[in-house]
Amino acid sequence: MRLPLRPSDSNKFTFGNVLNIAGSVNYRGAAYLSSVSALRVGAGYVTLAAIPPVVESVASQLPDAVYLPLPQNGLTMSRETVEVIAERLLPGTVCSLGCGISAIGNYPENLPTLVMSLIELFLRKEVPFVLDADGLNMLAKSGKTMDLKNSAVMTPHPKELSRLLNTTVEDIQKNRIDSAREASKKFGAVVLLKGHRTVIAKGDEFRVNETGCSALAKAGSGDCLTGIIAGLLAQGMEPFDAAVLGAKIHGLAGEIAATELSEYGVLASDLPRYIARAILKIQN
Questions:
Q1: How many domains does the chain have?
Q2: pLDDT tens digits, the chain, 284 residues: what are they?
Q3: In angstroms, what CA-CA distances link 70 with 23, 52, 230, 252?
Q4: What are the respective helix, strand and coil percentages of the chain, to the nearest 5?
Q5: Would you say residue 6 lies in a domain?
Q6: E-assigned strands of the chain?
Q7: Rounded Cα distance, 229 and 163, in Å
Q8: Phi, then psi, of 256 in degrees rounded to 5
Q9: Domain that holds residue 274
Q10: CA-to-CA distance for 131 and 117, rounded, in angstroms?
């Protein structure tokens, strides 16, 4: 799988615009990790759409991003978010949705409806997107089966996929390839099932990722993966290719980080700076 081309005659818009809808009062780090990873993998322009407390926290660490404050309801975003996002879906935009958008112990009753409205907006506007974490959980909570029209990458871990398929984690883990393919067909999306030997499925087609190590078994690692895939989508890759290459880069970043910090000591916040080293390894 080849990296996106980087022509010399280019500017930031050549490499796409990621609109990352992420974070809540309890999960500010998720917004940072997903945003910085999209930039590290080569996206030209990344906008973090988040509630004001998250914007304030992340902006102090990441001056490279652009910020779109969202209307707030308690610890997370309110239903008026849909109108705000709709105004920013310009041609060439890629979205990511779900990293840390809920709250510890509870979430507003409107959050599943809000997530569904955003997904419907992406589909109506024909915007490619990555759906992760609480985005997946809210989709499962809704009980709806949506056709995502092959424009989305879903990135569940086994528990999230068990909710989406109404089965057990044990069944998912016994049949990882079949489970990923079943979910792909059910939702009309590329499904990346996280875990040891991550499975990426598009209908009956699938790949098994061979990179990675236990260093990636830390909270926030998946947020980095979401950003990587969104950044590759923004550069024009097809969803399946972006998911396959994104998983490889993510795994390599973890491996390289572990050689310097040990598999015990790698933090999710270490991973973004190793994304560049992973890309160099692929290029060589």
A1: 1
A2: 789 999 899 989 889 999 999 999 999 999 999 999 999 999 999 999 999 999 999 999 999 999 999 999 888 999 999 999 999 999 999 999 999 999 887 667 789 999 999 999 999 999 999 999 999 999 999 988 999 999 999 999 999 999 999 999 999 999 999 999 999 999 999 999 999 999 999 999 999 999 999 999 999 999 999 999 999 999 999 999 999 999 999 999 999 999 999 999 999 999 999 999 999 999 98
A3: 11, 7, 20, 34
A4: 50, 15, 35
A5: no
A6: 17-21, 45-50, 66-69, 72-73, 76-77, 93-97, 129-131, 152-154, 190-193, 199-202, 205-208
A7: 23
A8: -65, -40
A9: 12-283
A10: 13
Q: Which residue, chain included where needed, has tokens 């160099």?
A: 280
The beta strand positions in 58-109, using DSSP E, are 66-69, 72-73, 76-77, 93-97
CATH number of the structural domain spanning residue 184 = 3.40.1190.20
Cβ atoms 3, 245 nearer than 8 A: yes
Please check whether residue 211 lies inside any domain of the structure.
yes
Helix (H, G, I), strand (E, B) or coil at 109: coil
Core vs surface per residue 222-257: b (16+ CB within 10 A) or e: bbbbbbbbbbbbbbbbebbbbbbbbbbbbbbbbbbb
Which token pair is 105? 């112990």
